[in-house]
Design a protein that fits this description.
heterodimer; A: about 170 residues; mainly alpha; Fumarate Reductase Iron-sulfur Protein, Chain B, domain 2; 2 domains; B: about 290 residues; alpha/beta; Glutathione S-transferase Yfyf (Class Pi), Chain A, domain 2; Rossmann fold; 4-stranded parallel sheet; 14 helices; 8 strands
């Protein structure tokens, strides 16, 4: 994955259908409303500290159809999902949702930070996104807290049947 | 008095490593006459997996709502991420029949169905809307008038506004009001509504910690004796990671970070031990000696 943004864009990189693909997805419907005012970037807490993460740029690249650059970029995963951009966008683009749609597409192709794969594997195995250590469970008891509700991996896996991303998760037999 | 009985949805982060929040919330809610029933079974609310699969998030959230519906109870969560996700999905599925049918197709495989009859609320919303400010004020036996603290709401309790529909994201008042109900002073500081950075941990720790550092700098600048949070992830950023941030950026803070129910509990006359103050990473003994 490439952190730096290449300056020169070749016309052959444009995929004119990409914007329609995104606009059809749940959360991406309002992509084409963006008129590049930059409210999202100027209010973005991550953009303040990152040299590369610019939500406005991601939206424009998506409109232009720079599919590979967007989906393979590291910066896509920096969004903290604080939804400030979504709440302040004057065009109601739901910027954070468009970015989420893009992440979903990247993840579908297997381009995804390890931390998400680990959390997903844990949910399938135990119901919880983190593996709760045995020590913690014992400590709950000593603190007088009620036992944690158990996950139901079998039932969870049944309901998640058909979710595309799961092909990227190594599953332990339950 | 309306019956305050809820299914408590703990989420993943709290049982994993934020026990003090749960302990203090249970103690204070009991004092306020709120009854908590444990979830019959559990799965993650779905939020952490939304970035990789929106569909998976919808199914996981809908499962939890369907389980609550079977129990005939509304959900209370301590984690704003869980509350936000459950609220958002509840609204989406209620308003969009096609989506609801699609998700119910998945749930059917596990013998479940989403009907849309249960609501989810965060602790803060339960306190202000269902318990009510009067009852909270009446529960205070030891007003914390000597304390000057700063509040941190975090993002998911307020945003996205369209789905959460609680308080004002640009100028939130609820936490401030609830802090003032304990007798403590709630100080203003720069960038109060700024994100803690937690969701970026694991992707880019440095950026995430820079955000938290910024917040701690602003809180320090107004001489707050403590920072008050209502989210397990924000708490991890400021309390668990405070020493790490001090080392990384060569700063000195020593700002204790309390879960709101810990503050409320002190005002109710509960002992620091009962409110799990010993679980906090940053030493809070200075403010405890102030409280007496």
């Amino acid at each position: 994955m490439n952190e730096t943004v290449q300056r020169i864009i070749k016309a052959s990189e444009f995929d004119p259908k990409f914007k329609y693909e995104i606009s059809k997805m749940h959360g991406g419907e309002k992509l084409m409303r963006c008129f590049q005012c930059g409210t999202c970037t100027s209010d973005c807490p991550i953009a303040r500290f990152s040299d590369t993460y610019r939500p406005r740029q991601i939206i424009r690249m998506t409109q232009l159809g720079l599919k590979d650059r967007v989906l393979k970029s590291d910066t896509l995963w920096l969004c903290a999902s604080c939804f400030t951009c979504t709440d302040r966008c004057p065009q109601d683009v739901e910027v954070a949702s468009v970015i989420r749609v893009l992440r979903n597409l990247a993840a579908e192709q297997g381009v995804v930070p390890q931390v998400f794969k680990e959390q997903c594997a844990s949910v399938l195995e135990s119901g919880y996104a983190y593996k709760i250590p045995e020590l913690r469970l014992k400590k709950r008891e000593s603190l007088g807290l009620p036992a944690l509700p158990k996950g139901n991996p079998e039932s969870i896996c049944k309901s998640l049947n058909g979710v595309g991303f799961l092909k990227h998760i190594e599953r332990k037999k339950v | 008095m309306t019956e305050n009985k809820y299914l408590i949805f703990l989420g993943c982060a709290i049982p994993y490593r934020v026990a003090a929040f749960e302990i203090s919330a249970r103690k204070t809610l009991a004092k306020l006459g709120v009854e908590l029933v444990e979830m019959p079974e559990f799965n993650c609310c779905g939020l952490p997996l939304d970035p990789v699969s929106h569909e998976m998030m919808l199914i996981l959230a809908a499962r939890n709502l369907a389980l609550a519906e079977q129990k005939g109870l509304n959900i209370i969560t301590l984690c704003p991420g869980c509350a936000g996700t459950l609220k958002k999905v509840n609204k989406m599925l209620k308003e969009d029949k096609t989506l609801r049918d699609e998700i119910n197709g998945h749930l059917k495989e596990a013998g479940l169905e989403f009907k849309g009859t249960a609501e989810a609320k965060h602790l803060l919303q339960v306190l202000i809307e269902d318990v009510g400010l009067e009852r909270i004020k009446n529960s205070v036996v030891k007003p914390l008038t000597m304390l000057k603290v700063a509040e941190h709401n975090g993002c998911h309790i307020l945003r996205p506004k369209e789905y959460i529909g609680f308080d004002d994201p640009e100028n939130p008042k609820t936490l401030r009001t609830l802090i003032e109900a304990t007798g403590a002073t709630c100080l203003d500081y720069m960038d109060e509504t700024e994100c803690c950075g937690a969701p970026s941990v694991g992707v880019n720790d440095k950026i995430a910690l820079q955000l938290a550092r910024d917040k701690l700098n602003h809180v320090k600048a107004v001489d707050a004796q403590a920072l008050i949070t209502i989210c397990p992830f924000c708490h991890i950023m400021y309390d668990t990671n405070e020493v790490r941030i001090e080392k990384m950026f060569n700063e000195v803070y020593g700002i204790p970070v309390l879960h709101y129910p810990q503050l409320l509990g002190l005002a109710m006359g509960l002992k620091p031990d009962e409110l799990a103050f010993n679980e906090l990473r940053v030493d809070a003994s200075k403010i405890l000696s102030n409280v007496g």
